[in-house]
Design goal:
The structure holds two protein chains of two kinds. Chain A is mainly β. Chain A has no helices and eleven strands. In chain A, the strands form two sheets. In chain A, strands 2, 4, 5, 9, 10 and 11 form a six-stranded mixed β-sheet that branches. In chain A, strands 1-3-8-7-6 form a five-stranded antiparallel β-sheet, with no helix packed on it. In chain A, β9 and β10 form a beta hairpin. The N and C termini of chain A lie far apart (41 Å). By secondary structure, chain B is mainly β. In chain B, 34% of the residues are buried. The chains are: A mainly beta, B mainly beta.
């Protein structure tokens, strides 16, 4: 079984500041890890995913995440926040042959001018 | 552009009045999913189709049904909506059922129950 904990339901950052969203997972099998973004009244869009190989994963819109097995973490970062990054972000986990994504509760990001 | 389309984007129904939500896709994917997302919560998988094979999640209420008449279309039927069924309903598709198969989401239908 897999589960995800996102630390912090709301994050507020200044435009140009670092964005850091925290995600810790629990998995009984080697995990596949995902970050999705959801803009208001829209569906989910995949930002990036970790399957195997390089632990630092680069995604769209300047986001990246690092898989740390020893810490069971998959934190999402962006060096410089933009107003367009205001959205809700979901971390999710699944196993290799498992279609089922287990989502975290989500983190809402607001960006201050 | 290949995409997942959901209609309508906003649906209002009355307590107990059956409602159908629609999803179509131009990706020609084998798998179609329905998720329920209540306000400020994570999406919750209700069921999915792999081709014509229907797979219900164990905790999905009987009130929720689905139909997939062909590869492109999938419908979510709520037989007797209750106030607790008010939510965003998300349709997603993927080419297969391993974690390597990215799920592509539609924009969602927001259901209001009066």
């Amino acid at each position: 079984a897999q589960s995800v904990t996102q630390l912090g339901s709301h994050v507020s950052v200044s435009e140009g500041a670092l964005v850091l969203l925290r995600c810790n997972y629990s998995s009984s099998v080697p995990p596949y890890l995902f970050w999705y973004v959801q803009y208001p009244n829209q569906g989910l869009q995949l930002l990036l995913k970790y399957t195997t190989g390089a632990t630092l994963v680069k995604g769209i819109n300047g986001f990246e995440a690092e898989f740390k097995k020893s810490e069971t973490s998959f934190h999402l970062t962006k060096p410089s926040a933009h107003m367009s990054d205001a959205a809700e972000y979901f971390c999710a986990v699944s196993g290799f042959n498992d279609y089922k994504l287990s989502f975290g509760a989500g983190t809402t990001v607001t960006v201050r001018a | 552009d290949a995409m997942v389309i959901q209609n309508p984007r906003y649906q209002v129904t009355q307590f107990g009045k059956p409602v159908t939500l629609s999803c179509s896709q131009t990706l020609n994917h084998n798998v179609m999913y329905w998720y329920q997302q209540k306000s400020s919560q994570a999406p919750k998988l209700l069921f999915h189709y792999y081709d014509k094979d229907f797979n219900n999640e164990a905790d999905t209420p009987d009130n929720f049904q689905s139909r997939r008449p062909n590869t492109s279309f999938c419908f979510l039927d709520i037989r007797s909506p209750g106030l607790g069924d008010a939510a965003m309903y998300l349709c997603a598709t993927s080419s297969g059922t391993s974690a390597n198969n990215e799920q592509f989401f539609g924009p969602g239908t927001r259901l209001t129950v009066l």
